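Retro notes
What went well: the complex prediction finally ran end to end.
Inputs used:
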Amino acid sequence: MNGVPILSLMLLVPLIGAVACLMAGREQARAIALAATLVDLVLGAVLWSHYQIGGPQWQFQEHAAVFSGFEWKLGIDGIALLLIALTVFLMPICIGASWNAIEKRAGEYYANFLVMETLMIGVFSAQDLFLFYIMFEAGLIPMYLIIGIWGGADRIYASYKFFLYTLLGSVLMLIAMMWMANEAGTTDIPTLMEYSFPVKAQTWLWLAFFASFAVKMPMWPTHTWLPDAHVQAPTAGSVILAGVLLKMGGYGFIRFSLPMFPEASAQFAPLIYGLSMAAVVITSLIALVQHDMKKLIAYSSVAHMAIVTVGLFAFNRQGLEGSMIVMLSHGIVSGALFLAVGVIYDRLHTREIDRYGGLAINMPAYALFFMLFTMASVGLPGTSGFVGEFLSLMGIYAQSSWVALVCTTGIILGAAYMLYLYRRVVFGVQKNADAAAMPDLDRREWAMMVPLGLAVLWMGVYPETFLAPMRKDIAGLEARLAQARPKGDAEWRAGALPLAGAEQEHGEAMEHGAEAAHGGAR
Amino acid sequence: MDLLRSLAITGTEEVLSVSGLILLLAAAWGGDKASRVISIAAVAVLTVCAVLTVPALWHGAMGAETAAWGGQFKGDAFAAFAKLLIYVGAAVTLIVAPAFFERTGAMRAEFPLLVLFASMGMGMMVSATDMLSLYIGLELNSLAAYVLAAFLRSDERSAEAGLKYFVLGSLASGILLYGVSLTYGFTGSTSFAGIREALSGPLSMGATFGVVFVLAGLAFKVSAAPFHMWTPDVYEGAPTPVTTFFAIAPKVAALCLLMRVSLDAFGTQPGAWQQIVIFVALLSIVIGALGAIGQDNIKRLLAYSSINNVGFMLIGLACTTQAGASAMLVYLLIYVAMSVAAFVAVLMLRDEDGAPVESIAAMAGLSTTRPMLALALAAVMFSLAGIPPLFGFWGKFLVFRAAVEANLLSLAAIGIAASVIGAFYYIKVVKVMYFDEAANVVRGKSDLAQRVLLFVSVVAISPLGYRLTGALDVLAGHAAAALFHFG
């Protein structure tokens, strides 16, 4: 875009804001933070409007040789664009959610959030392997501080768990990256995406990356840090954690694991399916029995992320596109749900579901928004959740009908726990006088809810807006995966879609076998 | 001509010894009242010496023209790199020391002199290309260091530290000397070049013993596990400025010495020592990490942290490659910056009466009472843990990359996984400072010199440090190339 380094600018604005926040008092700090995030939102809008759909794969590329060993290299494709858009969209809402809730050490708080924004945009726009790693890993520090300083009662345990789990996950990835850089002789991500690593090495590399992304995602059984972190984090921390940080795992799969190690991805697809099926069923059932609203939503996040992983490893376009939409949708919806919990938490200071009830009577507007987001989380047609889940499940159905069957139960169970939550909190009798006396949404809360609600509906009614930018990139990825794609179970039975020579031979061998059997019978 | 050239190559040692002797006279005449002037003069001398090392480093001096005194001594870029770090470390010690000692009236004129003579010994250590000049440098440094550890004469802990350091240090010297004698017996030479040549054939049992003993003695000096036991006690007991000195200068000198001995003298038999170095490295990483977990004294914690960091640096040596050596040198430099920041920050932790605060529990809530100090310490902790974007990450990154390039994949994988254990106690310090309620113990004021030093070193380990990666690559590359230039 006319040589303006817009991505660097988007990284710089929150960083400057963070330094300014550190020196400012509470009132100024939140104003600075809001201004910085809004500027980034505008820059994000400019970025999207100048993004050429169907243009070159990598756009807005920047390059500066300021380091030795790695490079300052930025650039985005459609996938990264969407995730950056999600980040800049959620950030002002996070600041809004903290507006009155954060009283102690506000300057540091907003500084941490702004640093977080820089790092998240950095992760999605980095085109150098090690630059990506630095951004990816650096996010631990602000999040550790956010959970630890402004979190709930058990915040210290949660912050340790978050930090050490994710650190342990990602250090092995660093070794794998070094091996790749050494083998391929470059740290440039677009080049590496086209490089063919030896199949044997791919297995190890894939596992090292998997360790990192599976924890970040999080996939069952490495998800246990998430409920703790979510419950203890302040509202805005939960929003950013669910909204964007979890997406780094999915982004990692789509940017590294799949294109760089297609053979290993195919080889490990059954593992992913198994873990995802387990996650969908187990975490949905766990969500059903929660008494803490945040914990319930946290478990539902794990279940939704499992839909993302099966979609990604469906190796076809519907699956990949569906996964991206689920990630975007979940980013908005779970963010919104945490916000909805935050709204009543600010009033009553408890997340205990039983303390509420009958909120539809005294908070009708709140009940309406909460309903919209509940429905989106369930995946009602017309909301964003439906589009993504439908595409993902359709994608995986082409690959394995059994996996699709098990994962679809997630939708049913999802409806169960979300509607059950909604019934207990919003409907029913007003059990507690203090809950019954809570005022409805104020102007600030309206301002946060409306954009989220509109985004949910937009994505549900006209998903083309979000599918168009990534269509070409997904097609490229599908083509890259085509040679490695394992045969779907439908193809096995019918033998209707002979894909490669080896499979044809296999089919012939089966025919021969059938003939021989026939001959034997004769 | 040869004499003049040799004199020119050993320039920094001459400056140090002559000015050390002059200042010694001044101290004898002036008494303790002159200690401030002598400190300033000593810092000036160290600065001059640091400047004198720059040309050799800049031009990447190496080879025969850097050898002096009949091959006993080498003034190459590698030695220059190490000396630069040593002199900087010594100067930092002298700058922060007066404020610490003056409170109790324990500042004496001998302090800067001991530091000067120790620096001279360390300069000889890193330049030595003969077992005998090596040993003389080592002992010159050690003698000064024993006295420094016991410098607070009225403090029991300090006396204990001095005694412990002396006994165990002498033992290590003895082991080293025994190794040297074995090596000499089986190779017929004390010069590195001679040993190198003699070892190039098949390795005899006796020579193997020699190599092992020399390495064990040196592992003692770098405080690598399993020879690390003295470190926590000495670090805790010695006066904090002296601990600062120990954490930086002798560590740099001993590590560089170890590099030169392993890669030069024993360089033709890497198989004989690579296994040992790998074992020592991994053990140091794990013991350094586990040992630190239960500590409540910040100096003890930093002692374990230094054991841990030495383990990571030794991974660079285990590669036996030039890239590994270069990575190790960059790590050393970053380690020096982190240590300066850490110990200066610890020196600034003082209670109302100005007495030093060493307990981690007393640092609770530091972020609310002294936000800038807490921020600096947090940066140091994350940097020591090797979490990006702090610059400490870069040192670890380079040694692990060198290990991967040298095909030591399992070493790299185990080492980096063990680094997560270390992260636990580093973030614990951050937790105490940021998450806990304020204990309000730290209230003392700090002087300007300390604040400036802290600021400079924290900026160096902050993400801004990555701008230095290019320059560091060139300088460490020069030094490593000189190290790998034999003959």
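What we learned: The CA atoms of residues 218 and 302 of chain A lie 6 Å apart.
What to try next: split runs per interface for comparison.
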